[in-house]
Amino acid sequence: MKTKVCTKCHKRRLVSRFREHYRTPDHLNSWCKNCESVYQKSPARKKASNELKKRIRHKTNYREAAIRGSNKHRAKYPEKSKARIKVQYAIRNGKLERPNKCSKCGQVNPRYQDGRLGIHAHHHNGYKKALDVKWLCYICHRKEHLQREVK
Ligand SMILES: [Zn+2]
Ligand SMILES: [Zn+2]
Ligand SMILES: [Zn+2]
């Protein structure tokens, strides 16, 4: 009969006392079934699995919220999203060029605090004219929209 030493309790046991495990070299768990069942019932193990569950739940909630959020935005501003996609497309195939300067305040390469380029295509003649854009830094862009909404 083949035997194996359990790495947990250090007792030599029959291989039938070990569960099969496809990732180990001998295809057997390094812990015997006894030690495994003790661990399964231990508070440490329960805590670990609860934490994991919590983390997974949190992650999916977050992702769902993000999807819901962007769908809502798209539904609320269909013209705006369409126009933005057209601009991105035109930049990609060279119809439109994204300058690195704000056409209003003249700032070159404006960047967000996290380093992303803060140049936006602003649809000053409405979103129907998707490629008729003014390039603004994110600060001027925000101002432009605030002014328009106040009027
Ligand atoms: Zn053991
Ligand atoms: Zn600007
Ligand atoms: Zn705009």
Give structural notes.
- The chain is an alpha+beta fold and 151 residues long.
- Among the domains are: 3-41, no CATH class; 98-151, no CATH class.
- It has four helices and six strands; from the N terminus they run E-E-E-E-H-H-H-E-E-H.
- It has a two-stranded antiparallel sheet. Strands 3-4 form a two-stranded antiparallel ribbon. It has a two-stranded antiparallel ribbon with strand order 5-6.
- Helix 2 crosses helix 3 (78-92).
- The model has no long low-confidence stretch (mean pLDDT 89).
- The structure holds zinc ion (3 copies).
Furnish the topology, listing elements before pairings.
Elements: E1 3-5, E2 12-14, E3 18-20, E4 28-32, H1 33-41, H2 43-76, H3 78-92, E5 119-122, E6 134-137, H4 138-150
Antiparallel strand pairs: 1-2, 3-4, 5-6
Helix pairs in contact: 2-3
Bound molecules: zinc ion (3 copies).
Task: Give me a quick take on this structure.
By secondary structure, the chain is an alpha+beta fold. It has helices at residues 33-41, 43-76, 78-92, 138-150, and strands at 3-5, 12-14, 18-20, 28-32, 119-122, 134-137.
The low-pLDDT segments are: none
Q: Count the helices. How many? A: 4
Sketch the topology as an H/E string, one letter per element. Answer: EEEEHHHEEH
- Name the strands of the widest sheet in spatial order: 1-2
Structural class: alpha+beta
- Anisotropy-based shape: rod-shaped
Helical percent range?
40-55%
Mean pLDDT: 89
Distance between the termini: 89 Å
In terms of DSSP E residues, the strand content is 5-15%
Ligand identities: zinc ion
